[in-house]
Amino acid sequence: MKTAVYPGSFDPVTNGHLDIIHRGAQVCERLIVAVLHNSQKNPLFTVEERKDFIRQETKDLANVEVDSFDGLLAHYVNQVKADAIIRGLRAISDFEYELKFASMMRELAPDVETLFMMTKNEYSFLSSGIVKEVAQHNGDIHRLVSPRVYKAIMKKYGY
Ligand code: ADP
Predict the structure, then answer these.
(1) Which residue in the list 22, 30, 55, 90 is annotated as catalytic?
(2) Which among 47, 64, 91, 127 is least surrounded, fewest beta carbons within 10 Å?
(3) Domain Cytidyltransferase-like: where (predicted)?
(4) How sure is the predictor about 39, in pLDDT bands with cuts at 50, 70 and 90?
């Protein structure tokens, strides 16, 4: 597989995302991690900040690029001529959403395959949302994100 896109909000990137990026980079020649603009009304980090975190954490992976997109993922994947989309799967709740998402992608970009990677057991509960919720109340999230992201989140919440 030549080019794959791993899309998401990444607000901010967690160790669960980074695990998918590492494994995704092994199954394609070029992996574009694509940060979605406007996915939430009130993101904690700007798109530039989110891209910077991912860039820093993946700088050892030569075939990983970081980009952002607005609007439909189907248009973006066609624009960058991607062969596949990579998505991570945690629980049954992800499956329902991802099935709809993949089916719609097949309608809109039939030549682009959606590939799912199962989460590592230790990250099966992990989402950017839960990290923010715990950090907001000064809970310990240092094992769930990189040291750089950890510092930035705690600073945002005033700790
Ligand atoms: P979230 O806000 O849920 O952390 P994103 O929208 O940024 O996630 O997620 C982008 C992609 O990464 C989605 O396919 C999502 O299922 C996947 N993902 C998020 N967290 C994990 C994890 N801990 N393990 C595996 N995949 C994950």
Answers:
(1) 90
(2) 91
(3) 5-133
(4) low
Q: Is residue 120 situated within a structural domain?
A: yes
Tell me the pLDDT tens digit for each residue of 40-57.
Answer: 678 999 999 999 999 999
Position 12 in a domain? yes
DSSP calls for the chain: --EEEEEE--TT--HHHHHHHHHHHHSSSEEEEEEETTSSSS-SS-HHHHHHHHHHHTTT-TTEEEEEE-S-HHHHHHHTT-SEEEEEE-SHHHHHHHHHHHHHHHHH-TTPEEEEEEPPGGGTT--HHHHHHHHHTT---TTTS-HHHHHHHHHHTT-
Q: Indicate whether 1 pLDDT > 70.
A: yes
Work out the mean pLDDT of the chain and round it to a whole number.
96
Tell me the pLDDT tens digit for each residue of 130-145: 999 999 999 999 999 9
Residues in the ligand 1 pocket, defined by CB under 6 Å: 8-10, 14, 16-17, 20, 87-88, 90, 94, 119, 123, 126-129
Provide the domain limits for residue 8: 3-124
